[in-house]
Amino acid sequence: MERFSSPDPIRTWTRERRRAGERVALVPTMGALHEGHLSLVDLGRERADRVAASVFVNPTQFGPGEDLESYPRDLEGDLRKLADRGVDAVFTPEVDTMYPEGASTWVVETDLSARLEGEARPGHFRGVTTVVTKLLEAVGPDLLVMGQKDAQQAAVLRRMVRDLLMPVEVVTAPIVRAPDGLALSSRNAYLAPEERAQAVCLHEALQHARRRIREGDGTPAGVLEEMRGIIEARPDARVDYVAAVDPDSFQDVSDLSGRTLFLVAAFVGCTRLIDNEMVQEG
Q1: 203: domain CATH number?
Q2: Over the stretch 29-48, which tens digit does the pLDDT of each residue have?
Q3: What is the rounded distance in angstroms from the CA atom of residue 90 to the CA atom of residue 99?
Q4: pLDDT, tens digit, for every residue of 49-59?
Q5: What's the order of all strands across the beta sheet hosting 89-91?
Q6: Does residue 34 carry a catalytic annotation?
Q7: How far is it, in rounded angstroms, from Cα 277 to Cα 257?
Q8: Max CA pair span of the chain
Q9: Rg, C-alpha atoms of the chain
Q10: What's the sign of the alpha-carbon dihedral 179, 229, 174, 194?
């Protein structure tokens, strides 16, 4: 596995691969890698000839009071995991490489990012779209591999790529879960043992929504209230939001007769977690 810390060498690496007739996939990460991230590598390998990954804790997608300073970091461990999984190249830039002094250019998507995570975390998606644009410019891949756990983020990036005519295909990998259903996340490391046991309530609420739709007698408002109750029955959990949206527009659905994306964000202790489930009636 080759490691690069500046754009020009990894851009050259990609160009050489493409001249050889190979497709390159990029898996962007913020490190603290777990099996969910590594499943993106596997999907990239299935869909392309070469896989590049990035490890960069992006400061511009963290808001005031969020966990930038405490976000888990283990670069050496991450590099071992990526090498063991067969990654061909890894991009590990410094902050001043991605955001040189005086940087004042942003990439902003204004529709899909306006609510839910965008409302709960002002400025978050501006940081995401800007850094992913920079990564795409630096690496120049054919394929961008995202995870379904960050469903709204993946939708925003698909829209960005479409709107800006970027020559890259965006693919989304399924959520990877622990045996009890908790979606894998780097932030799970913050959970104390008793909080970890309670955190499965997000998955339980989503599975309840799936059952209610299959029973065919729920309304969006009713199902969301039931989901909220399941989460807040746990002593250390509180809901940030629950939503039932159209998976393409991210607007609230008026009924549950079609494809519905259920999303939840909740705090368990001091740790904010997100999860989602795509459900179709019948």
Answers
A1: 3.30.1300.10
A2: 999 999 999 999 999 999 99
A3: 19
A4: 999 999 999 99
A5: 2-4, 89-91, 50-55, 24-29, 143-147, 169-173
A6: no
A7: 15
A8: 57
A9: 19
A10: negative
How many CB atoms within 10 Å of residue 22? Answer: 14
- Reported as type and span, the H/E element at residue 274 is strand 271-280
Question: Can you give the pTM of this predicted structure?
Answer: 0.96
In a domain, residue 180? The reply is no
pLDDT, tens only, 173-225: 999 999 999 999 999 999 999 999 999 999 999 999 999 988 877 899 999 99
Given the DSSP bridges, would you call strands 50-55 and 24-29 parallel, antiparallel or unpaired? parallel
- Active-site residue (options: 34, 37, 203, 208): 37
Structure tokens at 252: 């609230």
Amino acid at 6: S
Residues 104 and 130 placed together within one structural domain of the fold: yes
| Domain assignment of residue 102, yes or no | yes
Q: Could you tell me the two tokens for 176?
A: 């990877």
Q: How many domains does the chain have?
A: 2
